[in-house]
Amino acid sequence: MAGNLIDVTDLHVTYRTAGSDVLAVRGLNLTVGAGQSTGIVGESGSGKSTVAKALVGLVPPTSGSIRIDGDLVAGERAKGYHRSSRWKVQMIFQDPYGSLDPRQQPLDAVLEAIQHWRKLPRAQARTEALDLLKSVGITERQATSGLRALSGGQRQRISIARALAPSPQVLVADEPTSSLDQSAQAAILNLLRRIQAERGLSVIFISHDLGLVRYLTEDVIVMKDGFVVEQGPTDQVLHHPTQEYTQRLIASALA
Amino acid sequence: MTAAASAMSLPRSMARRFRLLPGSARAGVIIITAIVALGLLVPILSPYDLYEQVGKANAAPTFEHPFGLDSLGRDIVTRSFGAVRIDIVVAIVGVMIPLLIGTVVGGLAGTTDLRVVRGGVGLLVDGINAFPFLILALGVIAVIGTGAQAMIIAIAFTSWARYAKLARTRAAVLRDLDFVSALRLLGYSRARITVRHILPNCFSETVAYGVSDFTLVILTVAALSFLGAGVRPPEPEWGSMMADGRIYLQSAPWILVGPGIVLTITAFGVSLIGEALKDRSRG
Question: Which domains does chain B have, with CATH numbers?
Fold first, then answer.
């Protein structure tokens, strides 16, 4: 379909290990339009993070195809991500402490990304980097201090700013709040919602928390053991689940 | 080269962090600054020459010669501080060369996907580290000859492997962190990620150890000269001065004590700084 930003067809991912093969994703279809958000929920080991990694190109699919904005980035005869497509999809990781270069100042991290994608005079790039950081709630003082002094929530904001630097169309967020405390969690969710609206971003939001998925997404995919259990508009799936597994997931979330 | 640039920015960042250093490290910085200043000033301001006889051989300490005179009647205070230049320069170069080589080799070995390279470097590094440091350095000197340059080469040849081991471990941890994935998604090349992100992080680990190795290198320089394999006389050097003094240990112990005191104070100052940096790198 031409109108879709993300088009995933029959995605399979298998991890080959010494002992046995792990079938992490077994047949996932997904379409996401521009500015839409989709949640992927499931327990640990359901394959949801593997979907995220396959989408951004960190894990090669065993079969199936992934198209981003019409570019075939994974699948048969795929070229993979190239400079013409690489900027389109960025990712936010779960661990804010591992997702930033421990030696790099926040400002430099964002500045480097901006300068990599656009040839700007340094002063102008710096202003843009500071503006971008400010838009996610990081002050100039925080941006020019060492990472050591920053909290998990602040680090996650910096990761978001860096991911936004190439002006992507799709943001894949893999449990971006699960290692944060309650108040930081809420702040990051609101931030994601705001930038999604402001920038017309498509967001793939991966979480084990149904409440967060409901808050942030229009569509949802429920995964278990690599299979898609249920898929559809978030309200419908969460209010009228047709599958027993989804019902159990909802019940345990309410408990 | 970025790796070199990063190592060179160290003094600047150290100056910036001076005030944040724990008291012991600040004391270390002050001690080393004082030693270096005295090393530069004493030979110039001293009324006595570094190489000329100024009195009776093995003369005991007096007010004019607080550390006494050596077996050739030279002033020991002047020579002990005159030795600062050569000893500290050899130690700095003797730390920096192996630190650079070891960190780059280890960092690349820890990052590469080529198993042959990883295994080969690992074998070499573990092999060199398995040898006693001084024995291996002596072996190298036996092949290439004595003198300050030979000593630096011998020290570099043996101690790069320690930094390589540290850097390899650090790089192997770093390459699996999410930030490397994040940078790949931003379209940075593998070379860029390695040179600009992984190696600088390896350096912050090895530099901390390098500063404390500084003491080891100073002592090695002294030990090699003591064994006659280092700096040649009449050049003032703590190890060779002490070697010279050991013959007169009973009749003129001050010959050994003077350079020993300056060496000990220097080593103490450096290790104070090194410990603080190690604590810092452990976070």
Answer: 21-282 (1.10.3720.10)
